[in-house]
Design goal:
- The chain has 2 domains: 42 residues; 49 residues, no CATH class.
- The chain has 6 helices and no strands.
- Helix 1 runs antiparallel to helix 2.
- The two termini are 27 Å apart.
- 1% of the residues are buried.
Length: 95
Amino acid sequence: MGTSKRRLNDKIKTLLRNQPLTDLSKNAPEVTREILTNRVLERSLNETVLFKSFDVVSNAFITAKASGYNGKTLKELKEDEISREEFFGTVKNFV
């Protein structure tokens, strides 16, 4: 396993080598394809995990719409970047 991880790191370094920070987004799809291979996705994202994830995320948004989040209304949540990031972080932790 160490060898394959080392090869992956080398491929990613090659893709990103001598790239200015402003151009890194151009290589993001290639890097993503190297990291999230079909094998990794099939192993990690089975049907049960996907349905649970959708359920958690949709329930979080339904709850936020109905009663807000941490004492803030949905409108306040949309406008306050820090609260929004905290909300997404909380949702991410439950998935």
